[in-house]
Design a protein that fits this description.
Blueprint (H helix, E strand, L loop, with lengths): L23 H14 L2 E6 L4 H6 L2 E3 L1 H8 L6 E5 L2 H10 L4 E3 L8 H4 L3 H13 L4 E6 L4 H5 L3 E3 L4 H7 L5 E5 L2 H11 L3 E3 L5 H4 L3 H10 L4 E4 L5 H4 L4 E2 L2 H9 L6 E5 L4 H8 L4 E4 L18 H10 L10 H13 L1
Parallel strand pairs: 1-2, 1-3, 3-4, 5-6, 5-7, 7-8, 9-10, 9-11, 11-12
Helix pairs in contact: 1-15, 3-4, 13-14
The structure holds 1,3-dihydroxyacetonephosphate.
């Protein structure tokens, strides 16, 4: 295979590496060839575009993807998700090459909790004589994970919270909505960091209630990153894998109002096509798409395999973050 593809797409140039145009099928074929040539496994989060999920070797929620990354037998992992996910895959697999199609695919939650600010706040709490453990949502940087006692995902957070001995207070970072949901379900009071996800934060309860009036029989499923006023109108609250489990056990076809990133509907539709899915729009609509996830495209997926970059490189904080991650997610 040539080292660069002459590529341009039908609607817009799909890459800057050549002069010709390739259609969707050719692009998928190029990815297929490169995947083999580069000995790569493609992992994709449920929030990626359907066309990326379609050709991934494995799709999942944050927890499943972190675990799947430790079972990959190829030398390269291409992580179609956001930066902290690829970073987690690298931390758990130091010997593997981990590529992320677009290095700018960040996370508003991770951005809301810089490590130096967290360290400062933890120091203040210690000076006040408070005994606490820091429980950190996986949507955070490795440097923040390194300052933590536990890392949780929406899939295992309840279990981990129940493992924190009662004599400790819990400092939960960075998602205040997930934190308040965990307070409700576990009965543990927590000190909550004031971060939130830019996608789930903007869901409007008025929009949800309007949809409920339009589909009075519909069930509402919401991610725990949603604010309490959305969660309280929901029939099921859980992470993306939990949503799939909930929908999977419904006997009859239903209308489902889905309060999470809109690409989740692709996975729901694919697994359980007997139901009708309606995205809960944000206040101005279309804002239920994560702009960071959307930075990864098929073209960039191909190009990162072709060029071997962007790659996640080892950093000092990864050693300590790895201990916390393994204890929290793998044991
Ligand atoms: P889950 O993958 O745990 O459902 O969480 C979604 C998310 O926040 C991805 O950033």
């Amino acid at each position: 295979m040539a080292d660069s593809f002459p590529v341009r797409g039908p609607a817009a140039p799909v890459a800057s590496t050549g002069d010709h145009w390739v259609d969707h099928e050719q692009l998928c074929q190029q990815i297929e060839e490169l995947r083999r040539r580069e000995d790569a496994t493609i992992l994709a989060h449920y929030y990626q575009d359907g066309e990326i999920q379609e050709l991934a070797d494995f799709t999942g929620d944050s927890l499943q993807l972190a675990r799947a990354a430790t079972r990959v037998d190829t030398s390269t992992i291409v992580f179609c998700g956001v930066h902290f996910m690829a970073e987690t895959a690298k931390i758990l697999n130091p010997e593997k090459r981990v590529l992320l199609p677009d290095l700018r695919a960040g996370c508003s939650l991770a951005d809301s909790c810089p490590a130096d600010k967290l360290a400062q706040f933890q120091q203040q709490l210690r000076e006040q004589g408070r005994r606490f453990q820091t429980v950190t949502y996986i949507n955070s940087s490795a440097a923040v994970k390194a300052l933590s006692d536990w890392v949780v995902t929406s899939g295992n957070a309840e279990q981990i919270i129940r493992r924190v001995p009662e004599e400790y207070e819990i400092l939960f970072v960075p998602d205040r909505h997930l934190g308040s949901y965990l307070e409700e379900v576990t009965g543990r009071r927590m000190i909550l960091w004031p971060g939130s996800c830019m996608v789930h934060e903007v869901f409007s309860v008025q929009d949800l209630l309007r949809l409920k009036r339009r589909y009075p029989q519909a069930l509402t499923i919401a991610h725990p990153e949603c604010p309490a006023n959305i969660r309280e109108h929901s029939d099921y609250v859980g992470g993306t894998q939990g949503m799939l489990r909930f929908v999977g056990q419904l006997q009859e076809p239903h209308d489902l109002l889905v309060a999470t990133e809109a690409n989740m509907l692709w996975q729901l539709q694919r697994k359980y096509p007997q139901h009708r899915y309606h995205p809960v729009p944000g206040i101005t609509c279309a804002c239920n798409k994560c702009p960071h996830m959307a930075l990864n495209t098929l073209e960039k997926l191909r190009d990162c395999l072709l060029r071997g970059e962007p790659e996640i490189h080892w950093q000092e904080s990864f050693d300590r973050a790895g201990e916390v991650l393994r204890r929290s997610l793998l044991e």
